[in-house]
Write a structure and sequence with these properties.
single chain; alpha+beta; Beta Polymerase, domain 2; five-stranded mixed beta sheet; 6 helices
Length: about 190
């Protein structure tokens, strides 16, 4: 049985591979949404949203569909949802929202294809989590393609520089994401 430390070490060393936008990504999201709705307890699951770079038409991205799932109770998610998805082969992590071991925690799953490569990241959070601001970031980049192009340039540069360090790649994008999210909050009246 793999320990948590071994599992974390395994997933963080996987390469960062940013590829051109693929128009199949929205369909992959819809198929996974249908799957989740079919196999998870409906009383625990509310909205399911496609976010991240694969949700922004034309934007290069890691070919991993990010999904944000609102759950009514994270403790029940750990107890009742995590075992269902783990039995289906998903990697499961009880993950801190920011930094190392800093609450609040949420449920995070990695789904893989038959080749072992990541296909989906599923983030399960309650309604009050700041993760929902990521939808504002998504919507702003869709509305303002010039900002999306700036983000694409950053991602492509970082993916070359941080190809073998997923943590560094993610951290290096943070300032841009935070800045644009703040602009989006103001733009959409959510500040």
């Amino acid at each position: 049985m793999e320990t948590l430390e071994e599992k974390v070490a395994r997933v963080v060393k996987e390469e960062v591979d940013v590829v051109p936008y693929d128009p199949v990504w929205p369909g992959l999201f819809e198929a996974e949404k249908e799957h989740l709705c079919a196999c998870l307890p409906p009383e625990l699951v509310r909205r399911i949203e496609h976010f991240g770079s694969t949700a922004i038409p034309g934007l290069p991205a890691k070919p991993i569909v990010d999904i944000l799932v609102e759950v009514t109770d994270l403790d029940e998610t750990r107890r009742r949802i995590a075992p269902v998805l783990e039995d289906q082969g998903y990697d499961y992590f009880w993950r801190p929202s920011w930094g190392d071991d800093v609450p609040p925690y949420y449920a995070w799953f990695i789904k893989r294809g038959n080749d072992g490569k990541r296909t989906h990241h599923i983030h399960m959070v309650e309604a009050h989590f700041e993760h929902w601001d990521r939808l504002l970031f998504r919507d702003y980049l869709i509305e303002y393609p010039e900002v999306a192009r700036e983000y694409a340039t950053l991602k492509l540069s970082l993916s070359q520089r941080c190809r073998h360090d997923r943590v560094a790649y993610t951290k290096a994008k943070t300032d841009f994401i935070v800045k644009v999210t703040e602009i989006a909050k103001e733009h959409y009246g959510k500040a």
